[in-house]
Amino acid sequence: NQNHDQVGNRMMGDRLSTLVPFEALKLAAGLTLLSPYLPLLFMGEEYGETAPFLYFVDHGDPDLIAAVRAGRKAEFEAFHGTGTPLDPAGEETLKKSTLDWISPDATVSNRAHQIALRSFYRRLIEVRKQCQIATPSYPADITIEHTDDTLYCHRQLISGDLLCVVNFGEQPAKVELPLSTQNQNSQWQQQISSADAQWSPEKSTSAPDDPIPTTISQETTFLPMPPLSLVLYQASPHA
């Protein structure tokens, strides 16, 4: 989702947590950790660190520092109409980039989103292990359908087929599930949903009008998906 180059080479060192809504942060986390690749997390990403990660240096050669300052300024003139990058050799630049770690027992209200996001990452890592996400797949074992805003991905695995559904849009969506056209197990159990109330600081006492079901089957034709959400189901293991 982000790394030191993507963040540090922005003029103001903006992290993803300051650029997208909270629901989109969870969606991005789910896509990274539930994909069958080696996931890499940038420091602080797991709790939504908001401090920038600016470009800073500590060179002993004054000429080199001057060249870096000039180079950074020239780099952004082409696509930033206003503003200038902070001094890469300035101590304040380093201080602004320092992580504000969240402690394990943090309960301060303004940390609510960070606490929820960290818990969500922990659960994603558990699901990744339990569902054996990293198991290699052949192209014939993968079925993907998509629209402009939604994605449906089905992977056939001996440990239990996986079904991941994503709504990238900012409006609710109903995603068609062609389970009946494939030789699937009859029951699929939800493993994680980014829209679940437990991952949100604004927990509602009332149920959503069209909640994501915890169990689906071959008879399930459409799945209601809230905006910016992701859900993962797993079928029973193959005999």
Written overview of the protein:
This protein is of the alpha+beta class and 239 residues long. Helix content is 24%, strand content 18%. The protein contains five helices and eight strands, in the order αααααββββββββ. The chain has helices at residues 4-8, 22-33, 62-77, 91-96, 112-130; strands at residues 142-146, 150-155, 162-167, 173-176, 187-193, 215-217, 222-225, 229-235. It has a six-stranded antiparallel β-sheet with strand order 1-2-3-8-5-6. A hairpin with a 6-residue loop joins β2 (150-155) and β3. The longest helix has 19 residues, at 112-130. The radius of gyration is 22 Å and the shape is elongated. The two termini are 36 Å apart. The relative contact order is 0.15.
Topology:
Elements: H1 4-8, H2 22-33, H3 62-77, H4 91-96, H5 112-130, E1 142-146, E2 150-155, E3 162-167, E4 173-176, E5 187-193, E6 215-217, E7 222-225, E8 229-235
Antiparallel strand pairs: 1-2, 2-3, 3-8, 4-7, 5-6, 5-8
Helix pairs in contact: 2-5
Notable traits:
239 residues, alpha+beta, two-stranded antiparallel ribbon, 5 helices, 8 strands
Could you give a quick summary of the protein structure above?
The chain is built from 5 helices and 8 strands.
Radius of gyration: 22 Å
Helix-strand topology string: HHHHHEEEEEEEE
First and last CA, distance? 36 Å
Q: Structural class given helices, strands, pairing? A: alpha+beta
Average residue-wise pLDDT: 89
Work out the helicity level: 10-25%
> Which stretches are poorly predicted, pLDDT < 50 over at least 5 residues?
none
